[in-house]
Write a structure and sequence with these properties.
The protein is elongated. The chain has one domain (about 30-200). It has helices spanning about 1-25, 45-50, 75-105, 110-125, 165-180, 185-210, and strands at about 30-40, 55, 60-70, 135-145, 150-165. It is built from 6 helices and 5 strands; from the N terminus they run αβαββααββαα. Helix content is about 55%, strand content about 25%.
Length: about 210
């Protein structure tokens, strides 16, 4: 009798826990996002749907920037442009750092002097401003987001920015100039900087011929 009573109590407890658990389940709101308008009123250009955010083509570096969540069209566009300009500048600086490293590694140098030169050059690049960044195109989507509870309208902005290889080269020259000014008192580092710069531009010329 006791065993049957304990079994009944146990089953009742399990049922109660299950019922409480079922009551505590939080239902996730279902979101549905739909494009109600595009500006311009055309299908999205290829660069919008590209898997790349940064690429080089025809002597130009390109970067696609995005921003969303703004209820004001111009605010969304301005945010996307600002994001793209900053990101493009950082991407180009990454290219400069990478190509400088390859040029430096192509020559024979002692680790101490080479490491010192690399640190100074990277610091110079970080402190420079990339000029000539231009906005090429924009594409905006007006979205309506509907959930179980409410509905909201906002914009998603895509912008395409670019900078020419000429402005990229200006950044590189300024970085080398600033680096040499900082290491002027170190003869071995200055000689290494001169040799590295020569290799850098030789690589750029070779890449341009391909």
């Amino acid at each position: 009798m006791k065993k049957e009573l304990m079994l009944c109590l146990l089953l009742a407890g399990v049922g109660l826990i299950s019922a409480c658990s079922a009551k505590n389940v939080v239902k996730t709101p279902q979101l549905n996002v739909k494009v109600v308008e595009t500006i311009p009123a055309t299908s999205a250009p290829d660069w919008v749907n590209s898997t790349q955010e940064f690429w080089e083509k025809g002597g130009q570096y390109f970067y696609r920037g995005t921003a969303e969540g703004f209820t004001n069209l111009e605010a969304a566009k301005r945010a996307a442009v600002a994001n793209a300009r900053v990101s493009l500048a950082e991407q180009v600086k990454n290219v400069v750092r990478s190509e400088f490293s390859r040029a430096l590694e192509a020559g024979a140098y002692d680790e101490t002097t080479g490491g010192y030169l690399k640190d100074v050059f990277f610091s110079a690049v970080d402190n420079l401003t990339l000029s000539g960044v231009q906005m090429r195109e924009s594409y905006l989507q007006h979205l309506v987001e509907t959930s179980d509870m409410n509905q909201r309208l906002y914009y998603r902005a895509y912008v395409l920015t670019s900078v020419s290889k000429n402005d990229y080269n200006k950044l590189v020259r300024a970085a080398f100039s600033d680096t040499k000014a900082q290491i002027a008192a170190n003869k071995s580092a200055r000689q290494l900087a001169d040799a590295t710069e020569d290799r850098f531009w030789a690589q750029q010329e070779k890449a341009g011929e391909q």
